[in-house]
Write a structure and sequence with these properties.
The complex is a heterodimer of chains A (about 160) and B (about 290). Chain A has about 160 residues and is α+β, with helices and mostly antiparallel strands. Chain A contains five helices and five strands, in the order ββαβββαααα. Chain A folds into two domains: about 80 residues, Beta-grasp domain (Ubiquitin-like (UB roll), Roll); about 70 residues, [2Fe-2S]-binding domain (DNA polymerase, domain 1, Orthogonal Bundle), CATH 1.10.150. Chain A is globular and about 45 Å long. The termini of chain B are far apart. The chains are: A alpha+beta (about 160), B alpha+beta (about 290). Bound molecules: flavin-adenine dinucleotide and FE2/S2 (inorganic) cluster (2 copies).
């Protein structure tokens, strides 16, 4: 089946079997291997992508279901090649990653959180990443990274969305 | 962890969906896919064709129908969680969302999908059973309405006939001037499926007399159960702790309870009773705090 997808702002097409998950399609058909394959049944969050800006599990969507949405993968969050987003940078600075397997999912989840809630409490950060498993860090530094990114974004000279 | 090959269709109306379902006994509805895709990946389900209903506009949305709140089967859990009408008129349902999976699974998982999946410990089926909601099922031949009490037949077995499409859920709205709800759950980790969960909704008149009461428990056996006997015994009382304890204990004694690797039957019986009592006590407190 032919699918037309909008990935990181670009229109792309692939010819896939209906049983191919969006995760496998991103990795195999488009070479976007930043979305990681963990459990393939929805429990770990390693495959998290943004669908119309909202974090979802790419292993629980078939590629044929994903037309018409704006898909953002970890490859789409940096402002330019060779640069990092404020959130990615904060993960490096606070050692918010060790092996890096969970990191793309964590960064995308944090990206959506800070867009909607620029000054989250610790509890809100923990709730937001509750569906993303990390086997290395013990989460402390990930929470720290997201809090640091929130602080930096608050001081950045860029337009901010008002808190609802 | 790869599903068997299948066909994929995305119909544009309920009629077309029902016709597709009637034409193919091996076809299966996919809504949010948050339970079905793992089952496909593990090859526990092997449908020949998936019929995608998630984007059917007719199946999505929440509306006020006077005595009931009507929820379209394909309404996303996340959209329902934050819906003002649900908060105002279906407060018991509003309570349970934080316990269902994670924000990322609630964004695609639907209300109808959870009810059709009928996991014995799932939260939405518990609310539906506790309030004895009506479940509307459409087939090519017509529409039927099933009460929750007759809907859940076993673990992941429901009264939806072969070829049936769950279209909406009608939750009764209680008219009592003071209403309180509460939900409690015990699980291994927050957001995991419950070992046991309990829900209660109580209504009071201007005095401290309870005039309406519903209480249910999930995770004890084949499907969520409504403790009708306890509710009946409590109506007309002040819902004091002793009355609650007696009513719950008597109702629990009648139940067949299952055990498994995660929690023995004895443990579930004990925790089920404690959670049901707690839910009633907290619901009473919430009702009495309502402005009159
Ligand atoms: C990590 C994780 C944690 C979870 N934790 C919980 C939890 O704590 N509690 C909980 O209750 N759930 C939990 N779930 C499952 C929940 O997220 C699902 O949303 C829900 O069980 C199914 O809804 P769905 O819309 O995704 O349905 P699908 O997965 O699409 O479908 C489920 C079943 O229902 C049938 N179906 C769906 N819609 C209809 C319809 N309209 N008419 C007829 N049949 C239909 C399908 O054919 C299928 O058999 C979890 C899931 C994941 C991945
Ligand atoms: S790979 Fe998708 S949740 Fe684990
Ligand atoms: S850094 Fe290794 S899993 Fe999170």
């Amino acid at each position: 089946m032919k699918v037309q997808l909008s990935i990181n702002g670009e229109r792309r097409t692939a010819d896939v079997e209906p049983r191919k998950t969006l995760l496998d399609c991103l990795r195999e058909d488009f070479g976007l291997t930043g979305s990681h394959t963990g459990c393939e049944h929805g429990v770990c969050g390693a495959c998290t992508i943004l669908l119309d800006g909202e974090p979802v599990r790419a292993c629980l969507i078939f590629a044929v279901q994903a037309d018409g949405y704006e898909i953002t993968t970890i490859e789409g969050v940096a402002p330019a090649p060779g640069e990092l987003s404020v959130i990615q940078d904060a993960f490096c600075e606070t050692h918010g990653m060790q092996c890096g397997y969970c990191t793309p999912g964590m960064v995308l989840t944090a990206t959506a959180l800070l867009r909607d809630n620029p000054q989250p409490t610790r509890k809100e950060i923990v709730e937001a990443i509750s569906g993303n498993i990390c086997r290395c860090t013990g989460y402390g530094q990930i929470v720290e990274a997201i809090a640091l990114a929130a602080e930096r974004l608050a001081h950045a000279n860029a337009p901010q969305r008002a808190k609802p | 962890m790869k599903p068997v090959p299948f066909d994929y269709v995305r119909p544009t109306s309920i009629e077309e969906t029902c016709a597709l379902l009637a034409a193919d006994g091996d076809a299966r509805v996919i809504a949010g896919g948050q339970s079905l895709v793992p089952m496909l990946a593990m090859r526990l389900a092997r449908p020949a064709r998936l019929i995608d209903i998630l984007r059917l506009p007719e199946l999505s949305g929440v509306r006020d129908d006077g005595n009931t709140v009507v929820i379209g089967a394909a309404t996303r859990q996340a959209a329902t969680e934050h819906h003002p009408l649900i908060k105002a008129k279906a407060p018991l349902l509003a309570k349970v969302f934080p316990w269902i999976g994670h924000p990322a699974t609630r964004r695609r998982g639907t209300i109808g999908g959870s009810i059709a999946h009928a996991d014995p410990s799932a939260e939405i089926p518990l609310v539906v059973a506790t309030l004895d909601a009506e479940i509307v099922v459409r087939e090519a031949s017509g529409e039927t309405t099933i009460n929750a009490g007759e809907f859940f037949l076993g673990p992941m077995v429901t009264a939806i006939p072969q070829g049936g499409l769950l279209t909406e859920i009608r939750l009764p709205v209680w008219s009592q001037p003071r209403l309180g709800v509460s939900f409690h759950e015990v699980n291994a980790r927050h957001s995991d499926f419950a070992f046991v969960c309990a829900a209660a909704q109580v209504g009071f008149d201007e005095t401290t007399h309870c005039t309406a009461c519903a209480v249910g428990i999930g995770g004890l056996g084949e499907f969520p159960v409504r403790l009708d006997r306890a509710a009946k015994a409590l109506i007309g009382t002040d819902l004091d702790h002793a009355a609650i304890a007696d009513a719950v204990d008597a109702a629990m004694a009648e139940l067949d309870i299952w055990g498994d690797l995660h929690a023995s039957a004895e443990y579930r019986r004990r925790v089920g009773g404690v959670l049901a009592r707690r839910a009633l006590i907290d619901a009473r407190q919430a009702a009495l705090e309502c402005p009159q």
